[in-house]
Each structure stands twice: as C-alpha cells, then as structure tokens.
Specification:
The structure is a homodimer of 218-residue chains. Chain A is α/β, with parallel strands linked by helices and 218 residues long. Chain A has a single domain, classed as TIM Barrel, CATH 3.20.20. Helix content of chain A is 43%, strand content 16%. The first copy, chain A, contains nine helices and eight strands. The first copy, chain A, has an eight-stranded parallel beta barrel with strand order 1-2-3-4-5-6-7-8, surrounded by seven helices. In chain A, helix 1 packs parallel to helix 2, helix 1 runs parallel beside helix 9 and helix 2 crosses helix 3. Chain A is globular, with a radius of gyration of 16 Å. Chain A starts with 9 loop residues before the first strand and ends with a helix. At the A-B interface, helix 2 and helix 3 of A face helix 2 and helix 3 of B. Chains A, B: Pathway: Cofactor biosynthesis; thiamine diphosphate biosynthesis; thiamine phosphate from 4-amino-2-methyl-5-diphosphomethylpyrimidine and 4-methyl-5-(2-phosphoethyl)-thiazole: step 1/1. Chains A, B: Its cofactor is Mg(2+). Chains A, B: Condenses 4-methyl-5-(beta-hydroxyethyl)thiazole monophosphate (THZ-P) and 2-methyl-4-amino-5-hydroxymethyl pyrimidine pyrophosphate (HMP-PP) to form thiamine monophosphate (TMP).
C-alpha cells in the first residue's frame, strides 16, 4: 500500500484554549480557506467521547478539501474518527505500536528532541520528523532546549525524512525556517490565536510558496 | 467468533495511588494468588507510553494465569498491550466504536448510572454492565447517585446481562451485593489499599464462592 505524500508546508496544530475568533471548527475552516495544508488535532483535556466527536467534525470539514487530519498521541481517537494518521511524541505510544494499529497507509510523524531521536525516527520508518521546538515557545512548557536554525540545518544535512519545524514560528521567521531546510512549518498560536485565521494561514502559505519557487530556481 | 465467558466474580480495578503494600504489579500478582478473577487497569495520570508498558507488564502476569485484563477507556492502550477488552464509561469512547476497533472477541463492559443507560448497554451488545456506584465511595468523586441494593435488584429483575457492581464494596457488604443479583463485585481500595492484597482477595473470593453454592442449592 502506498502512503500518501502529504504537503507538510503549512501545518496547523490545534489548541482550543487559544482560539479567539470562534470555535475550533471555525478556526480550522478559515485556516484551510487561507491555505493550511495539514491539521493535527491536539487535545489533552477532553474526555475520549468528546475528543472523538471533535475529530469527526474536523474530518468532515477537511476530507472534502483534501487536507489530511492527524491526531496527537491518541491512536484510538484517530481510528475512531477516521483520521489520516497520528503525531507522536517521545512519551506517547511507540512508533511500532502506532504503525501496527494504524496500518501501512497512515501518516505517522514523530517529535524529535535530539539527533539520536531523529536517527531512530528515520530508522523506524516514520513519515516525517517534528523538529521540536525549533524556537522557544510559550505554547508548550514541557519541551527541551530549542534546535534553533543551526540545529535544523544539521538535521537537514543528515536526514532525508521530511522535517516539520514547530515552536515559536510565525510570519516573521517562517522564511528562514524554510531556508534552513524545513519541509513544513507547524504553528499553533500564529493561527489559533489570530483574530483572522484565514489571513494568518494565507500569509504563511505565501511564504511557503515563495520558498518553493526559490528552491525550483536553484 | 465466540467471546470468552469471563468469571466476573472478584474484579479488581487498579489504582496505583492507593497501593500501600508494594508496586501495582506486586499488588495485582498477590491479588491473583488470592483469587481475583478479572483485572481492569484504570489509569488517568500516566502518559500513553508508560500506560502501555504497565498494561504489557500486567498482561504478562495475568495471561499465564488465565485472568482476563481489561483497560479502562483506552482502546489504543488495550490494543497495544494485547488486553482482553476494555471497560468504558459514559464519557469514554462509544460502545460501537470500541467494538469495531477491539473486534468481536473482546470483552467490553459499560458503566451504567441509570436504567436508560442499562437498557442501552444491553441493547448495543455489551458483555456486562458496571453498576456504578452501588454504594457511595471516596475513590471516585465524579459519580452520580448510588444505585443501592434496591437499585441493583431492579436491574437484575429487568436485564439478563452480567452485572458487575462497583463502589464502596468490601468484605463486610460483598455477600449482600451478590444476594441482590450481582455476578461480580468490582473493588479498588478493598484490595489496592489493603496491607495484604492476597488475603483481601481471598476473603472476597470466599464470599463469591459461598454465594454461588447458595445459588446452586436453590
């Protein structure tokens, strides 16, 4: 079975508590209109039943638009709501278990906080690495030392797996993250906390497109 | 596929925070020596990776002894660690989703807090009902009004599904819970918080056996 080759370029990670312009569904719908290419549902507070229902609502919104939906950590929620994959951190379910349960066609990304973890993610067959955090960020407080642009460049030189950078990325620094070798930028507050999620997504997508055109010219 | 017909009679629900006599694995091992017939791993604090590892450790302990392992709420953890089933509450994954993901052979129990929920549990094909709570209990604070022995008798008259009573059950009231129609008693603190989990389980098992002998005589 061939896995889909997703477009990681503008990757929205949800945070209901940051949404200022409407419900999470509203924010995701507008972000997709603006050009988000992938959505990860991250939810640490909801009970399983509500988590699955929210996943189903996002799936119904995203599937007709061809935008893949991943679920953070929870394979049960991903399977129940028909998500395209999961994103797992180093304290979440192990990659081998996630792959076995999700199937060969699922997209599975792994957060990496060290070169050793990056090597393991590539070795085990993950679809992409979440380079976490690339910059210091107030959204997650349980993270390790930032990779920085130099760390991202080092990963790019060493590994062929798609790199999705996360942590402290917004319109002002997105271009340099792409230039350092990221295939995608994952954002939380840059879209969720924006008063205009569609415009925020469109701005990031324009940066991503500009970076691709630059790469095509080289 | 035929589902196993488990012995629900002495059903241990885990709580790591209450274990006074050793680790959770120690407590479960000694409880099984004492006569526990089923174990439900309930865990709200651990990250998924540790939850799966704990499930695997219990599975390795229980499977050779023929004692089924269920996981509370988390189908992903149950599938990853090879548990025999799941127990779901009214805010957990829906029964239909749990059955689809766990397969026809899994044991799936549903907590019921009203006659309507009990009717739904029987209608949808659950393996047993968790009658919750039968008595008021300090272990769970988010529960609804207790069923009491009269409520349990009412469920017994009305439904044929196995009834597992939970909440405030210990050696002093276990016999009357069986007499009111329970197929099993689920306990948390009566075993986990006991200084001698083996003896605590043996006492409850003796009550369960006495009740069965009495039923066979009738």
């Amino acid at each position: 079975m061939t896995r889909m080759q997703p477009d990681y370029s503008v990757y929205l990670v949800t945070d209901r508590t940051l949404c200022v312009s409407g419900t999470l569904e509203d924010v995701v719908a507008r972000a997709v209109q603006g050009g988000v290419t992938m959505v990860q549902l991250r939810e640490k507070q909801l009970c399983t039943r509500e988590f699955v229902e929210l996943g189903r609502a996002l799936r119904a919104l995203l599937a007709p638009r061809g935008v893949p939906l991943l679920v953070n950590d929870r394979v049960d929620v991903a399977l129940a709501c028909g998500a395209d994959g999961v994103h797992i951190g180093q304290s979440d379910i192990r990659y081998a278990d996630a792959r076995r349960l999700m199937g060969a066609g699922a997209v599975i990304g792994v957060s990496v906080e060290s070169v050793e973890q990056a090597a393991e993610a590539e070795r085990c067959g993950a679809d992409y690495m979440g380079v976490s955090p690339v910059f210091a960020t107030p959204t997650k407080t349980d993270t390790s030392a930032p990779w920085g642009l130099e760390g991202l460049r080092g990963l790019r030189r060493r590994f062929s797996l798609p790199l999705v950078a996360i942590g402290g990325i917004g319109p002002d620094n997105a271009a340099e993250v792409f230039e350092a070798g990221a295939d995608g930028i994952a954002v939380v507050s840059a879209i969720c906390a924006s008063p205009d999620p569609q415009q925020a997504a469109a701005t990031l997508r324009a940066v991503a497109r500009g970076k691709r055109r630059a790469a095509a010219v080289l």
